[in-house]
Write a structure and sequence with these properties.
globular; two-stranded antiparallel sheet; single chain; Serine Threonine Protein Phosphatase 5, Tetratricopeptide repeat; 4 strands; 50% helix; mainly alpha
């Protein structure tokens, strides 16, 4: 009995001793970085801010079709969405802002970029979900607020446009001071390039709000558009491909994109171009089609009618039908000789000169500003042709 009591006392003493540690101390990862440098967070944000080409989004928008059920497809089977992806990225944006504020004299550029990326990702999030948390978002750790209020979509867009205006002004100041952004693999740290992106993204947002231009005066859609077009010095834009917001693939570590060191899969019957997209190019005899896709092997070839050998799969067809058509050589596949011709492949444009020129044309056509919409459209087509290396042929199409 005495032995039992002694053992019990020792156990109780041991438990009380071990319980002196706070549970939060036990949860800390000794290998984790709790105060990362803003430039490291910035690079991480950039890596999560692009959309890959030839993906599910391209299938849903009928640029291509997928005929193997194992690898998904193109059905419009959307259900509920998740806040995890956009707010997961925004969590890093907020952290970058917090860390940059600790050394504002050294990290002002990252505080400015935080404004842009908040605008960028909150705009994309409200496009998907409508009303969303913004003013009280991501305050779980800092304020213990795990049930943030939702802001109206109007409030979200007002804040987005305000952030973009502030970012434009601050980037102009950074440019004058010669400041740069470490960790930037898109624009090599040049504020003037980011300034063009900020204003070009503003045009994208304004055009997306075209249906609200007359019934939501607080947004000042028409006025903001006219301001950008009327003052190119204050609001520089992406008007040439050299300024594109685009991902340049790594040509050193070749495994992710170019695993076979030049032995490229010539035919991928699982992925074919979509009829909706292909037929537009085919009808217009657009030379970009000859670069993007392969001829359907079963189609009779006529040198005088080069576009007749291209066929696209219909998005609404059964995958079994698409698979048989592809196997029988009736559909055009992606031309990997172009897309993967080198280790670095083809840049993935996130926002480019063509889109900006078309946005300007649309705003002018809607009467938001003065200008020649036709010239803007032609400039947009020209930039796209140049991107595909078709400088000699673009004049024929125009």
């Amino acid at each position: 009995m005495k032995y039992f009591k002694s053992t019990l006392i020792l156990l109780l003493f041991g438990c009380s001793f071990s319980s002196c540690k706070k549970i939060t101390d036990l949860q800390k990862d000794p290998a984790a970085v709790y105060n990362p440098a803003p430039k490291l967070l910035f690079t991480g944000i950039l890596m999560r801010s692009y959309d890959a080409p030839w993906s599910e989004d391209h299938r849903h928008n009928q640029y291509m079709t997928q005929n193997e059920a194992y690898y998904a497809g193109q059905p419009y089977g959307w259900t509920t969405g998740s806040f995890e992806t956009p707010y997961g990225i925004l969590r890093d944006v907020y952290r970058m802002e917090i860390e940059a504020a600790k050394t504002p004299e050294l990290s002002a550029a990252y505080m400015t970029m935080a404004k842009f990326f908040k605008a960028y990702f909150f705009a994309r999030t409200t496009e998907m979900f409508g009303d969303i948390p913004l003013t009280e978002a991501l305050q779980g750790e800092s304020a213990g607020n795990f049930a943030p209020k939702y802001n109206t979509q109007l409030e979200v867009y007002q804040q987005v446009l305000s952030w973009l205006e502030e970012a434009n002004n601050e980037l102009a100041n950074l440019k004058e001071k010669g400041n740069t952004l470490d960790g930037d693999f898109f624009y090599n740290g040049k504020p003037e390039q980011w300034q063009k992106l900020v204003n070009s993204f503003k045009l994208r947002v304004l055009i997306s709000l075209s249906k609200r231009a007359d019934d939501s005066p607080a947004l000042r859609v028409k006025e903001r558009f006219a301001e950008v077009l009327a003052n190119p010095t204050k609001y520089p834009l992406i008007l040439e491909n050299r300024d594109n917001f685009q991902l340049l693939y790594n040509n050193i570590n070749t495994y992710p994109l170019w695993p076979t060191d030049g032995v490229i899969i010539k035919k991928d019957v699982r992925n074919t171009l979509g009829a909706t997209y292909l037929n537009i190019l085919k009808t217009l005899q657009d030379p970009r089609l000859l670069i993007q896709a392969l001829p359907a092997s079963a189609m009779p070839s006529d040198p005088t009618r080069p576009f007749d050998v291209y066929n696209g799969g219909k998005t609404g067809d059964l995958q079994s039908t698409l698979l048989k058509q592809a196997a029988d050589g009736q559909l055009s596949m992606i031309n990997f000789d172009y897309w993967l011709a080198s280790p670095s492949g083809v840049p993935s444009i996130q926002l480019g000169a063509s889109e900006v020129q078309f946005a300007l044309a649309e705003g002018i056509n809607r009467g938001w500003a003065s200008g020649d919409a036709a010239v803007r459209v032609q400039s947009g087509i020209s930039q796209s042709m140049l991107f595909y290396g078709l400088s000699q042929d673009k004049s024929n199409l125009l």
